[in-house]
Inverse folding.
């Protein structure tokens, strides 16, 4: 036991923070499971568990772009929608060949991650070579374009495989796909994905959060992560010592997009009906709020902010029409508190080690 304690003390401060983050997520998962098993969570909160996991992954992945890379992305919901609908298509079309729901969910998450990564690569290659706020503008446009494309998308599946069509003119229906009598309509244009088999679980969400944290934290602590943070702090200085700007920016951006796609697949397979309007500009701003309030570059803060702020509107439902007003007031108060020098100094005196850890993570 003493040797274990000595080994723990010998670890780097950043490693201790990372292990504390992993342990905190595991403890939260165990506690929530115990509460759910004991019937202490109402139906509403139980139904929010999977979306909370998805938004935690979204917040952590966006923090990689905004907090670690230092680039503003306003279309993160676009990557989430790519993952959601590609994941739904994969899961629904594999129902006959893969009866196991967990196996289909894993495949759907991987498919969502791959397609979102591809979209991130397509967007990032030209834009990340530029300077300024071009990434924010392009990602904002990307999110809106993806939403409109999905509203025009018709997808079905039968024994002959997938059938797809773009209803640009507005005159096509799902019947125009020519599906066989036993065929399955997966996406019906503006109606979105309907009749989807919900296979997402809280356990799968927890596993995805852990995988996301492992990927992001290991990337941040690696040589590539130090290069990415160097670009954030001073691009000219980083370029002068031979750091490949486009390579490392693209690495962070594509990783962030891929994780958002995985979160989208988890989210999309939690509902029987899913419309593209779920992934609007408002969703991107909501995730950005989680990141800012949790602290730029602070992954643990993103986790807490995403969980608390997602639950808060539901907790304020008793205020009826005034609940969103109260929600906005709470956000303002939290923002003022997190930027108050006196509170920061007080926290530094009470928890000096934790403050130092937060600065590094």
């Amino acid at each position: 036991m003493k040797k274990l304690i000595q080994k723990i003390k010998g670890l780097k401060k950043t490693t201790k923070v990372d292990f504390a983050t992993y342990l905190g997520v595991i403890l939260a998962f165990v506690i929530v499971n115990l509460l759910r098993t004991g019937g202490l969570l109402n139906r509403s909160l139980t139904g929010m568990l999977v979306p909370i996991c998805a938004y935690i992954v979204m917040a952590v992945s966006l923090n990689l772009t905004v907090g670690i890379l230092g680039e503003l992305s306003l279309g993160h919901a676009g990557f989430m929608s790519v993952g959601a609908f590609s994941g739904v298509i994969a899961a629904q079309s594999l129902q006959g060949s893969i009866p196991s729901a967990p196996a289909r969910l894993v495949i759907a998450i991987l498919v969502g991650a791959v397609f979102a990564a591809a979209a991130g690569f397509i967007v990032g290659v030209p834009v990340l070579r530029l300077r300024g706020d071009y990434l924010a503008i392009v990602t904002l446009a990307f999110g809106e374009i993806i939403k409109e494309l999905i509203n025009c998308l018709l997808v079905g599946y039968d024994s002959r495989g997938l059938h797809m069509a773009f209803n640009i003119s507005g005159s096509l229906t799902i019947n125009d796909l020519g599906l066989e009598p036993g065929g399955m309509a997966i996406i019906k244009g503006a109606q979105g994905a309907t009749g989807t088999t919900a296979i997402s679980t809280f356990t799968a969400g927890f596993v995805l959060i852990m995988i996301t944290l492992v990927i992001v934290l290991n990337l941040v602590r690696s040589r590539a992560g130090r290069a990415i943070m160097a670009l954030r702090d001073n691009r000219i200085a980083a370029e002068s010592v031979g750091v490949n700007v486009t390579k490392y920016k693209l690495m962070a951006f594509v990783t962030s997009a891929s994780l958002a796609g995985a979160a989208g697949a988890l989210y999309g397979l939690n509902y029987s009906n899913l419309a593209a309007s779920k992934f609007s500009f408002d969703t991107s701003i909501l995730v950005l709020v989680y990141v800012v309030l949790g602290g730029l570059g602070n992954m643990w803060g993103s986790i807490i902010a995403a969980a608390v702020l997602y639950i808060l509107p539901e907790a304020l439902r008793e205020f009826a029409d005034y609940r969103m007003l109260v929600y906005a007031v709470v956000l303002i108060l939290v923002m003022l508190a997190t930027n108050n020098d006196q509170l920061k100094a007080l926290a530094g005196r009470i928890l000096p080690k934790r403050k130092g850890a937060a600065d590094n993570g």
In short: The chain has a mean pLDDT of 85. The first helix runs from residue 2 to 10.
